[in-house]
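Repro:
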Amino acid sequence: MSEELLLGLTFEEWEEWGMRILIPAFILYMVFIIGHLAWKSKAGKYGTLWLFIALGVGFVGFIAKGIIEWFMTH
């Protein structure tokens, strides 16, 4: 069975590109959004800290999962 290609890449290669480049770019964009929200709302240092903690828990967990997987396989 031949693998189908999209622009010369297999599905697994597209998935690898997405995990290595697009998801980190999306996380950086979310950090920018949280910072912009803190700045526009004039949250101050303490409020900004809590915004980053509350809204950033999801991608911190995603990053931690990747690090734990890497340590378990190496």
